[in-house]
Design goal:
Shape: elongated
Largest sheet: 5 strands, antiparallel
Radius of gyration: 22 Å
Oligomer: single chain
Number of strands: 16
Order of helices and strands: EEHEEHEHHEHHEHEEHEHHEHEHEEEE
Strand content: 15-25%
Number of helices: 12
Distance between the termini: 11 Å
Structural class: alpha/beta
Strand order of the largest sheet: 1-16-15-14-13
Length: 309
């Protein structure tokens, strides 16, 4: 049955690959009339479940860094909470306060100051490239540099990697992953979504972290579906990313992406709601306006499903 389009994204099907805050994204898209499909590309092991973070913290306290890079506010807060639980909070803050601290953006800077610490420098945006330029201009050769990471690296991570750049510039880099990304326990939902992208059953696929992109590409590679997946995202199913870091693994494979000016989930939702209608071709057929969707067709403003769902 056909139905009038009540909202700007009605008749469109969007894939959410996020684990964290996926419900917020789904609600925002649903308010705009979209149909949601969800398959978490990654799971998160938080600091409270990770003995590795405590061990890394003990090692850092025993041999303090000259310089500390804070990449996320949530990551710093989680690091300090884990240190407190292990009885290391005072020792860690002492080590951090004695070092020069660089923040990746406003949220990281806010967390630094909330902890009673002070940053030496922070860009107005959350640009990793600006942070890298500042660190290289400052000079890191011969320095011990602790880098608070916001997820484990993979072979699909965007280049250049911050830790690799610092090592090449002569720094001794101490990575501190505050939480780790792991593949989901059940990979079947993502396998089905990879097939859905390849078969053009989706109008867009969203990514909110580079590890999620890496996981999806890795699973497609393992199952022999990588090239069809990349072709679909290059041609028909646009990849919508929250920012340039998230988009990095796709750009490395010549997959175009759409990103908001501000790297926020709300901005991503608004951009997608604006972008998808712009991409839609309207055809005049037998006196009627027609526009295709992944799961059906819009005729004179009414959506007609052709999938039986």
């Amino acid at each position: 049955m056909s139905r009038p389009l009540p909202a700007v994204m009605a008749g469109r099907t969007v894939l959410i690959t996020a684990d964290r805050r996926s419900e917020d994204l789904a609600e925002a898209f649903a308010r705009r009339g979209a149909t949601i499909r969800h398959a978490a590309a990654m799971s998160i092991v938080h600091h409270s479940d990770d003995e590795r973070l405590v061990a890394d913290t003990r090692a850092l306290v025993a041999d303090p860094p000259d310089l500390v890079v804070v990449t996320t506010g949530a990551g710093l807060r989680g690091w300090l909470e884990a240190a407190e639980g292990a009885g290391l909070h005072g020792s860690l803050t002492d080590a951090l306060s004695a070092a020069r601290i660089f923040a990746r953006g406003p949220k990281a800077k806010g967390a630094i100051r909330a902890a009673g610490l002070r940053e030496q420098w922070s860009p107005p945006s959350e640009s990793s490239s600006e942070l890298i330029r500042e660190l290289l201009d400052e000079g890191v050769a011969g320095l011990r540099v602790a880098v608070q990471l916001h997820g484990a690296t993979t072979s699909w991570e965007p280049l250049p990697d911050l830790c690799d750049v610092l090592r090449e510039a002569g720094a001794e880099v101490v990575p501190v992953p505050v939480y780790r990304w792991t593949p989901p326990d059940d990979t079947d939902p993502m396998a089905r979504m990879i097939d859905a992208v390849i078969n053009r059953d989706l109008d867009a696929v969203t990514f909110t972290s580079a590890p999620a992109v890496a996981s999806m590409l890795g699973q497609a590679h393992r199952t022999g579906a990588l090239e069809p997946l990349l072709h679909a995202m290059r041609t028909v199913v646009p990849a919508m990313c929250v920012g340039n870091v998230t988009a990095g693994p796709l750009h490395a494979l010549q997959v175009p992406t759409v990103q908001p000016a501000r790297f926020r989930l709300g901005a991503l939702v608004r951009l997608i709601a604006e972008e998808l209608p712009r991409r839609a071709s309207v055809l005049r057929v037998a006196g009627h306006d027609m526009s295709l969707r992944a799961s059906g067709v819009v005729v004179d403003g009414c959506f007609q499903s052709v999938t039986g769902s």
